[in-house]
Write a structure and sequence with these properties.
This protein is mainly α. It is built from 5 helices and 3 strands; from the N terminus they run E-H-H-E-E-H-H-H. It has a 3-stranded antiparallel sheet with strand order 1-3-2.
Length: 158
């Protein structure tokens, strides 16, 4: 007699536990909870009030990790996700449209980093590291026009 509770091995599980999503996506369970608190992913609750995720959350977590890796803020990711219907699995075409929105921002960041790298070489070469004249810290002494005083103290640790 076949056990009715067993399921065929080739059948995909409809809902995943946080541990299963964490293992498959390579992120900590606490990260999943954080993403959920920010509205980036959604879970359902089972009868025991435990979180369960639909399989499409794996794709959303992958997109979140890609965005984080290239420096896209989570708020921007959330804005993009908010345009999609709930429970929607992103197609390749939709991913291309979504990622193209981030391309301009990524290009701008790359340009800024290249400029900083090139100016940094010169700055280290001159040895001044002057807060007043430094082209990296205070280009064209723009802060001087704001008056005297410690204008950059709040940025020192950043």
């Amino acid at each position: 007699m076949e056990n009715k509770l067993s399921r065929p091995k080739n059948r995909l599980k409809a809902l995943l536990t946080p541990g299963e999503v964490a293992q498959r996506s390579g992120v900590a369970v606490s990260a999943l909870h954080f993403y959920e608190s920010k509205g980036l992913i959604r879970s359902q609750r089972n009868a025991g009030n435990q979180r369960r995720y639909t399989r499409d959350v794996l794709r959303y977590v992958a997109i979140i990790k890609i965005a984080q890796r290239i420096g896209i803020p989570l708020a921007t990711v959330g804005e993009a996700f908010s345009m999609l219907p709930e429970g929607h699995t992103l197609s390749a075409k939709e991913w291309k449209a979504l990622s193209s929105r981030w391309r301009d921002e990524l290009e701008r960041r790359i340009h800024t980093l290249i400029s900083l790298r090139d100016e940094l070489d010169g700055c280290i070469g001159c040895g001044c590291l002057s807060r007043r004249d430094c082209p990296l810290r205070n280009p064209d002494d723009t802060l001087g026009s704001q008056g005297t005083g410690a204008r950059l103290l709040k940025d020192i640790d950043n």
